[in-house]
Amino acid sequence: MLQLPVLPSSSVGSPNPRLLCFRDSSSPPSQSVRSHSPLNPRKTSRVSLARAPHGHLSLRCRQSEYFDQQQRFASSTSSDNSSSFSPSGGGTMSPKVFVGHSIYKGKAALTVEPRAPEFTSLDSGAYKLSREGFVLLQFAPAAGTRVYDWSRKQVFSLSVTEIGNLIGLGPRDSCEFFHDPFKGKSDEGKIRKVLKVEPLPDGSGHFFNLSVQNKLMNLDESIYIPVTKAEYTVLISAFNFILPYLLGWHAYANTIKPNDPNRANNANSRYGGDFEWSR
Hints:
Layout (H helix, E strand, L loop, with lengths): L63 H18 L19 E4 L3 E8 L2 E4 L5 E5 L2 E11 L2 E2 L5 E5 L1 H8 L7 E5 L11 E9 L5 E10 L4 E10 H18 L2 H6 L25
Antiparallel strand pairs: 1-2, 2-5, 3-4, 5-6, 5-7, 8-9, 9-10, 10-11
Helix pairs in contact: 2-3
């Protein structure tokens, strides 16, 4: 699993996103409060196409001190991170790291956070993927100037397929996802969530609009936020990077050993791996 260095002073739920390694599109509000909660992504979806080592120049910015501290911490802990936990059981559990990205606008804020996949241990000592990871979107309405009411936030979890739809979305395309957290249960239909991503009229980006109908709480709310081309590009770049990790493929890649004599005999016959090339 990807391990990212963080400052020792970082803490979960800090109101300043930069302390959680957030890279925001604008300065974070001083009074915002964020909570983290997991989400069971039971859902259906509906999609419609609609160094310069010898240089003499330097650059300083408001966050330079933060990144300088981060680099020093990374260099002091690089040896520890090399033994990060993997489902193969060959490493040790590293400290949990929280990362994300936030976009703040006048009427709402959007936070995007990855959630790791889950593995199940088998009797043989191996591990099997039991649940794919996902990306959690958190929408919070504005409660004032540069202040957001995170107690009224609404969440929406993107599956790997839905992430793929967003990655492939063109500048004039739109898509729509429908989720029912109680799909297949007795309370099916009592909570309905619809996420629409549509192009802005002037072509400068996309609208993210989350509508939530909760009959259990008598709630009907819609939160929308415009996302510029640059902000959307950042999101897509992050999605492209994290997607293989959400699938758990990094864990498999970490177990590959070129000199393993048993590798050829470990192909899964369920998928015909033993037979295709031996015919």
